[in-house]
Amino acid sequence: MSKKVDLADYEKFLQEAKDTEIDLLVNKEKTIKFLKLCCLGFFSLAALGVGGVVTLLPLKEPPIPYILKVDSVTGRVDSLSLVTPDTLSQMDSAVDYFIRYYVKNRESYSAKNIQTYYDTTIEMSDEEQARAWDKKFFDGKNAIDKVLGNSVSIEVEVKDVIPDYKNNKAVVRFIKRYVYDNKQPVTEYWSADLSWYYDTGTVRVSQRAINPLRMKVDDYRSSQEISK
């Protein structure tokens, strides 16, 4: 048996159903909006993270270059110092010094210092250049001490060194001054082209004292420019 529905109750029911449907739609829109905000936030954070990594990449320090020393006997490698513009400049200065040192010893002469000039030039030359220099001293009647004797000495003044450090070459301009006991000195202007390499073999302490950089001149050509 059916129950009679009151019109007021029925209208109330319809209104409640309508309100419930509205609430569901509102909640659905809020949920969609929330999800959109979550996605936007996620991608924003991701973009910031990538940007942060990219920003930090340039801050990563490059590898620090060192000058390395290899022990020719044990093979042990030791780092000596950082490679800086000052370090490279100091190394170039040392090479420049020994280029001048070599030319002065090879081109100078005096009866008093002849042994020093000989030993230094031999130690700083490769085998071929050493043989050529040795011949200059022990070529019989043409030996330098027989030709020049005790009455003259040759003083050398290096005026300029034009180096090519990359290829271990240099052009040296220098003055040779012949000083005699009984007449006026003679001044000559010379230039020399030379090249060298660095000997990494085992050496005695006495050899290293003469040539600590272990530079070995493997080509040397000198010529006179003018004489006064």
UniProtKB/TrEMBL annotation:
The chain crosses the membrane at residues 34-59. InterPro entries: NTF2-like_dom_sf, VirB8. Residues 33-225 form the Bacterial virulence protein VirB8 domain. It is found in: Membrane. Keywords: Membrane, Plasmid, Transmembrane, Transmembrane helix. It is a single-pass membrane protein. SUPFAM superfamilies: NTF2-like. One of its GO terms (cellular component) is membrane. The keyword Hydrolase does not apply. This is P-type type IV secretion, pilus-tip protein/pilus component TivB5. The lineage of its organism: Bacteria, Pseudomonadati, Pseudomonadota, Gammaproteobacteria, Enterobacterales. The gene is tivB5.
